[in-house]
Amino acid sequence: MAQAGEGRRNGRVTIREVADDAGVSVAAVSKVLRDAYGVSDALRAKVRASMDRLGYRPLASARGMRGQTYTLGLVLPDLRNPFFADIMTGVNNALERTQYQVMMGISASTAKLETGVVDSMIDRQMDGIILIGSTESRESLNTIAEKKPLVTIGHHDPSAEAFDTVNNNDQQGALLAVRHLVAAGYSKIAMLSLQGEPSSILAEREQGYRHGMVEAGLGGAINIASATQVMRDVQFAAKRLLQGPRRPDAIFCWTDFIALEVISVATELGLRVPEDVGIVGYDNTMFCDFAQNSLTSIDQSGELLGLQAARLVIERINGRTAVEHFVVPPRLVARRSTSR
Amino acid sequence: MAQAGEGRRNGRVTIREVADDAGVSVAAVSKVLRDAYGVSDALRAKVRASMDRLGYRPLASARGMRGQTYTLGLVLPDLRNPFFADIMTGVNNALERTQYQVMMGISASTAKLETGVVDSMIDRQMDGIILIGSTESRESLNTIAEKKPLVTIGHHDPSAEAFDTVNNNDQQGALLAVRHLVAAGYSKIAMLSLQGEPSSILAEREQGYRHGMVEAGLGGAINIASATQVMRDVQFAAKRLLQGPRRPDAIFCWTDFIALEVISVATELGLRVPEDVGIVGYDNTMFCDFAQNSLTSIDQSGELLGLQAARLVIERINGRTAVEHFVVPPRLVARRSTSR
DNA sequence: CTGAAAGCGCTTACAG
DNA sequence: CTGAAAGCGCTTACAG
């Protein structure tokens, strides 16, 4: 329909139409668009007026062909953990006054997307990538970082050079959990970790856990079980722990969601929380507050992590090459699940 | 660096390099890429081999300039409701054997993104849009549909022409909840609905609730409260209900998450669930299964909804113009929260 | 069945 | 400070 000539397509206004309307060149409009230097206030005002009048919106694909798309890719391991919502809030806050828009992808969904989601974000010319809870190797991350500015959240690699990392101090978080449990009178403290891809944050937490146990003179009671994120698996692991010969009197779980399942299993087994078994989670997600859970948890300031990650990736886009590793101290939020 | 000439950019292999490697034209490679008609098996095989050898990946931006980006935009209201994870699973299943990739955005985060996330997806040349839990008006949705194939999930508009809808039968879902509660011996049944933008799914559920109450001869006990999704707000509304003069003996909540908060409030008030108050949620998310919640809920088959939505949007991309409205029947999953 | 050429809407040197 | 022209990597008619 509507024979070209005026460059219409899909009803979209193009940069050429804005230029014609404002009586300036296409290049001038482009400069205004990018807040580039070398445009007079008068020209800028004229162009802005035309853009508003015509309802102009630049096409990201076209921009991406030569410059940026002003899009950041955020990769989440899954959509079930409400902790990621906190991170997302921080990311959005950081982007509020910028031209950047964030698009999310899930890494652990179908086979196709396993690592493919990052590639597909690169194919889509994302200007930068934020990877949450990655279990990729250093080399693999370096390969990504070669192509696009990269920041990881929840991946410890303090000697990485090619990409920035943003973390809470997971070792300290686990330590806080153990100390808190010890102070509350628990001694047979087990840890429930994640099975599968080796994760640096879990390695850190396991180390913090061991440290805390040894520190309290409980080195002999160290007991690390693990399960995948599949519900049935977690139930099985929890039952093994709670019905086994070395039944713990407290369990430190690697994330709130798992901790809630452990509470569920304990309840079904007729064990009382916190009297028979104390439970600690990680992330301090909103579910911890519910009276039926009242779960003690480690807060790692997800919103701050997201804010920092967005800030760092934009800095990289703007040319920073020196690496930055941001670490926030965790803090324990005590609730009834450990108040023996 | 690396003076052009061979067309390298950012280490990316271009379609031209593939063409040169295979000894064919760029147009031929493009056809193979799109599985377009009119290429011999021999040529296709040659090109495929070259693509593999060089590790070629088409640049979505460039494709988008003329044709498709093979990207679908999925808009979620927020990241806190685990129900969306079910929908996402279905979407990914539908996309498994296709070239399409899905990118997600959040609609209800910051001011900037309120409705802007859809526009920004259009700017990014998404081939189609799936909108979850939209509260936009018919005209507003029509405007989107004019620009891109659109499918909504959780938005009832059976006479819409320009876009497809995918839903469970919310009216029936609410009816099931009321009937179940009545059968369990509850009679002062309240509903806790969502305050804010008028939502067609909540309108449907409220109607189903009213219908169920009247049907059971409980028309006089109809009592609809509402709260935003903010935790404090929900707590306040729940307290008002449970401490008010017309204290209900059961509450039907518009989503599981809210129901869990209501259980929390009831527990804190010293009320027993299900003895003093029965609770029903909606979505049958995995949290319902936890022993400490054991929440009766309405299952709306999120995975199926996602699968259908993805299927429909791809059909639209491929040229279908006749509208489709897909509705799945809900089913109630009874648990302890209503077993008086 | 195959390919040369135009063009999508921008940005980027470069010249004025 | 401003603009004309080339070009990003694809797809799309069109011609052979």
From TrEMBL, chains A, B:
Record flagged with keyword Transcription regulation: yes
Protein name, entry field: LacI family transcriptional regulator
Repeat keyword on record: no
Residue ranges annotated for the HTH lacI-type domain, each copy included: 13-67
A GO molecular-function descriptor: DNA-binding transcription factor activity
Lineage: Bacteria, Pseudomonadati, Pseudomonadota, Alphaproteobacteria, Hyphomicrobiales
UniProt keyword annotations, A-Z: DNA-binding, Transcription, Transcription regulation
UniProt-listed CDD domains: HTH_LacI, PBP1_LacI_sugar_binding-like
Native source species: Devosia subaequoris
